[in-house]
Specification:
- The protein has ten helices and 17 strands.
- The strands form four sheets. Strands 3, 4, 5, 8, 9, 16 and 17 form a seven-stranded mixed β-sheet that branches. A six-stranded parallel β-sheet has the order 12-11-10-13-14-15, sandwiched between helices. The chain has a two-stranded antiparallel sheet with strand order 1-2.
- Helix 3 (144-163) packs across helix 4 and helix 3 crosses helix 9 (296-309).
- By secondary structure, it is of the alpha/beta class.
Length: 345
């Protein structure tokens, strides 16, 4: 089978691999969709930034996989041949406190924790060897692309929004309207938010968010953005904000534009932020959340709700490529001007 390797110099290599054979408690998944995450770009494609167990190990890339079970290893307990599955993108030890809660992303075992596409082969190939306990059934009325987007981006913002108890009482500010920001706006709407404000440095991404009907106001990021948000909210700011940009400027705006007693979440990876803690956090009585990916249970819950709501993450995809065009897929994703980019099979 053909798989994608990321050398870390903004290039893509296609290599041939044997089709894996599932062992005990494992399944072989025929890939149908495998989307590209901003973390793939930031920490692997441009350069290998991670160290030790968090580093990229030269495996097949892609940690947002979705497909069909074609082989079962011995000891599988739930899945059947032909099941459509989304793969939670971390395999953990299964026995630490975080794994028992479903948060394999936070598995405490340096020996056993492995992320698909980082430390073990991922979804940018024709087949993926997966642990059965990392697979979640995909509802019939959701597409494989829908499922791939839930594996990381949509799951990440769902976790943050539900932790902040977002509802129809809130106005929502989304800083960064890339694929994760689009997901935040879409799910914020679904959770009842009547007014969504979005900011970004990219005119193309602001247009996309507006055309999809995901934001009510798209504001260019910059020195005037805070004033614009305050003008739109009667001078008090938004009840809830979420930074999906991972930039110092986006994080600062999210904090500054949150109203007193409001809630703010950081989900964008990398970078730093600096602000006056007393002025913008303590004295405003703001609750700040750091939120990393989601749990198996919450990913399953999100898929059930998307199915019930008739909501399709695939709407945020602007570019689809075959596996053999993976180099172009990564180039487009790296430009930072598109919606979600997905490899389809």
């Amino acid at each position: 089978m053909t798989g994608v390797i990321l050398p870390g110099n903004s290039t893509v290599e296609l290599r041939e691999f044997p089709v894996p054979v599932p062992g005990h408690g494992q399944v072989l998944v025929q890939m149908k969709a495998s989307s590209i995450c901003g973390s793939d770009i930031r920490a692997i494609y441009r350069a290998h930034l991670g160290q030790g167990p968090e580093g990229y190990q030269g495996v097949i890339a892609g940690h947002e996989p979705c497909g069909v079970v074609t082989q079962l290893g011995p000891g599988c307990k739930r899945l059947r041949l032909g099941d459509r599955v989304v793969v939670y993108h971390i395999s953990g030890c299964g026995v630490c406190d975080e794994c028992r809660r479903g948060y394999m992303i936070s598995c405490r075992s340096a020996e056993h924790r492995a992320a698909y596409g980082w430390q073990r082969d991922g979804g940018h190939a024709e087949y993926l060897l997966a642990e059965e306990n990392t697979c979640v059934l995909l509802p019939d009325n959701l597409s494989f692309v829908d499922g791939a987007l839930v594996a990381c981006g949509f799951g990440t913002v769902y976790e943050a929004l539900t932790r902040m108890q977002v509802s129809g009482r809130d106005r929502l500010l989304v800083t960064g309207l890339g694929p994760v920001g689009l997901a935040a706006a879409m799910l914020g709407r679904a959770l009842g938010v009547p007014e969504v404000i979005g900011t970004d440095v990219s005119d193309a991404r602001m247009r996309l968010a507006t055309e999809l009907g995901l934001v009510d106001y798209a504001i260019p990021a910059g020195q005037e953005a805070l004033g614009r948000v305050l003008d739109l909210t009667g001078g008090i700011g938004c009840e809830v904000s979420i930074d999906c940009s991972g930039s110092p400027e986006g994080r600062l705006l999210a904090i500054q534009a949150t109203r007193d007693w409001g809630r703010c979440a950081f989900v964008g990876e990398g970078g730093t932020v600096s602000f006056e803690v007393s002025k913008y956090l303590i004295h405003k009585q703001i609750t700040l959340y750091g939120s990393w990916v989601t749990s198996l249970q919450h990913m399953e819950e999100l898929l059930e709700r998307l199915s019930r709501w008739g909501l399709h993450p695939e709407r945020t995809v602007t570019h689809r490529f075959t596996l053999w065009d993976a180099a172009e897929a990564y180039r487009v994703a790296d430009e930072g001007q598109s919606g979600k980019v997905c490899i389809v099979f």
